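Annex B. Sample input.
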Amino acid sequence: MKIAVFVYEYPPKIVGGLGTYAAEITRKFVLNDHDVTVFTMNDDAGSLPTREIWRGIEIHRPLHIDVSDSLPDVIAEDIRKWGRGIHLFGKLMVYNYLSAAKLVNELIKKEGLKYDVVVAHDWLSAMGGITVKRETGLPLAFHVHSTEKGRTLGNGSSVVSNIELRGGKMADMVVTVSYAMKDELVQLGFPREKIHVSYNGVDPQKYKPDNVSQEAIQKIRAKYGVKDDEFMILFLGRLVLVKGVDKLIMAMPHILSKIPKAKLVVVGVGDLQEYLTNLTRMTKLDEFVKFCFDFIPEEERIQHYAACDIAVFPSHYEPFGIVALEAMSMEKPVVVGAAGVSGMREIVICCGEDQCGYHIDPNNPSDIAWGVTSALENPERRKMLGTNGRKRVLEEFTWSKIAEKTVELYETIAKR
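Annex B, continued. Sample output.
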């Protein structure tokens, strides 16, 4: 197949899980003999190549022009309230329409290239995907990784929600990351018959315990003052309300009452950095909660998984939760939020002979503590949970399997 992909973030510009997903799955497409063209954002300075081949993938990054001064008179009050966010909205509009114009007018009409399907990821790229479908008649696959309502716990932008819904209605197919997300999309008005589920994946050869030396592990633990006879509890992700890291900090007194030699390591960046620092100070947990306010590179992230004894992700809203897969691939027990929209509830088996972790109520610190202590109290059980986690990854969640299923979905709309 020849696939045109619109995605907001792509290497080397990665902000979160979407960039990781896009990089991994497009690479697998190419390795399976499909032809991929990616349209993504340039950086703020416009320093990235506007057209290049990377790992067999053709990438286009239009140069940004600032249209924010022209927007206030023509956009909704909802967006004007964003303040500085109006600049971001302007950048997104420019990226979408310049990319769509380049695909339609240059690659298809001028260079004579033929595509089988156009793919757009989230509202960030929906405008470009819809435009290409209207101009060319190409079938559109719209991937929804999360929703505005879910990300903001119901306090988001109606404009963004409307763009998401229009993408869902205009697309020939909607692909989402979990059955929990499918249910949410149906509730939001997306056509049920269009929605298909294709999970995210992980590279088990990259996320493999044997790849990390004991020296690297000791270095990570020493960085946070975690001794050999202490347990390292790891949270890794964006520091925003929906991730529930504040409740995890509140769970620490309960955890310490049963496991005094435990330390929580929180790695990430986000709006809650100052709040979490103050919360730790106020609860007198400075000795037991350590922070790394940084977006660490992948190699270092893998070392953190290797160094920890358990990974905890008590999200209130998590459409999929690729971090849980990464920890499982590194043979670590996982404790995950399982209330509301939770793809991690589908990833993590919480009972029986294949158990690899625990489901908890992310609103309840004592329940979070129960999950953590249950995994840590018995070393044999902890090892069994980790072994089962990697086994589950190898059976269900490799990028090769995910890419194969995703292409099969694209082929159904291409054949129509």
